[in-house]
Amino acid sequence: DAGITQSPRHKVTETGTPVTLRCHQTENHRYMYWYRQDPGHGLRLIHYSYGVKDTDKGEVSDGYSVSRSKTEDFLLTLESATSSQTSVYFCAISERIQNIQYFGAGTRLSVL
Amino acid sequence: GQQLNQSPQSMFIQEGEDVSMNCTSSSIFNTWLWYKQDPGEGPVLLIALYKAGELTSNGRLTAQFGITRKDSFLNISASIPSDVGIYFCAGQGPQGGSEKLVFGKGMKLTVNP
Question: I want to staple B93 with a disulfide (CB 3.0 to 4.6 A). Which of A37, A38, A105, B99 is the partner?
Fold first, then answer.
C-alpha cells in the first residue's frame, strides 16, 4: 500500500465552523490531490499541488483552500463548512502528473 | 471539460458469472486506468493501460485500451464474492491540454453467493 494517511477518518461538524483535513504521505511524491466523492458524481478534483507551496484549483474548488508547507503534508481547509460539503474526501499522490495516482482511505465529513 | 461515460452504472450477478463494463469518451486519452473501491476505503489501482489496442490481464481481470483511444473495457471472469465494490475507469490527457485524471462515475457490482 502507498504510504498515505488521511486524518481524521470521520468528522461531524456544524455549519459555519472551520474544518481542516490532513493528508500525509511517506512516498516523497511531488503531486498531491484532494477529491470529493458524492453519489452520482464520482470523484471530483478540488485542488492539487505540484510542489511545496505550489497549488492549483480543480473543478470544484469553491469554498475550499489548501496548503502545502512540506512535501509530505497537504491540508484541505473548509473555512466555513456548509451542508453541501458533506462528502467523502480522498487524498491522492503521484510522482508526476502523468503517473498513476494512489489514494488514501478517505475522510467522511458530515456538516450538520 | 472532458467527461467519461461509464456503463453500466450497476450490476447484480451470481457468483461464477463473468462481468463486463466499459468507458467511453469524446476525447482521446493517452492512459486508461481501472480502479476498484471497497466499501469504506479508497480506490485501488487494478490495471493501467498506456497504448492503443493494448490488452492487459491481472488474474481474473482483463482490460483493453480501445483502438480509437476514446474507450476502454474491463472484464472480470468467474466472479467471486470479494469482487463486490465500485469499479472506476479513469483517463488521462493530453487532448484538451489537461493531464489530470478524469474519472467515470463508477459501476457498483454486487455478487450473490
Answer: B99
Question: Please, which residues have CB within 8 angstroms of residue B97's CB and are 6 or more apart in sequence?
Answer: none
Q: Does B85 touch chain A (CB under 8 A)?
A: no
Contact between residue A7 and residue A26 where contact means Cβ atoms under 8 Å apart: no
Express each pLDDT in B96-111 by its tens digit: 455 678 899 999 999 9
| HSE-up (13 A, CA, CB side) for residue A27 | 20
- Contact at 8 Å (CB) between A49 and A64? no
Min distance B109 CA to chain A CA atoms (Å): 15
DSSP B47-66: EEE-STT-EEEETTEEEEE-
Q: What is the pLDDT of residues A32-67, one digit of tens each?
A: 999 999 988 889 999 999 999 999 999 899 999 999
Asked whether A97 and A31 are in contact (CB, 8 A), the reply is: yes
Q: For the segment A64-99, what is each residue's pLDDT rounded down to a tens digit? A: 999 999 999 999 999 999 999 999 999 999 987 767
**DSSP, res B95:** G
Record the cell numbers describing residue B48, joined without a space.
Answer: 493501467
Q: By C-alpha distance, which of A8, A12, A7, A53 is closest to A30?
A: A53
Among candidates A44, A90, A106, A41, which has minimal Cα distance to B100? A44
CB contact under 8 A, B43 and A90: yes
B45 in A contact zone (CB under 8 Å): yes
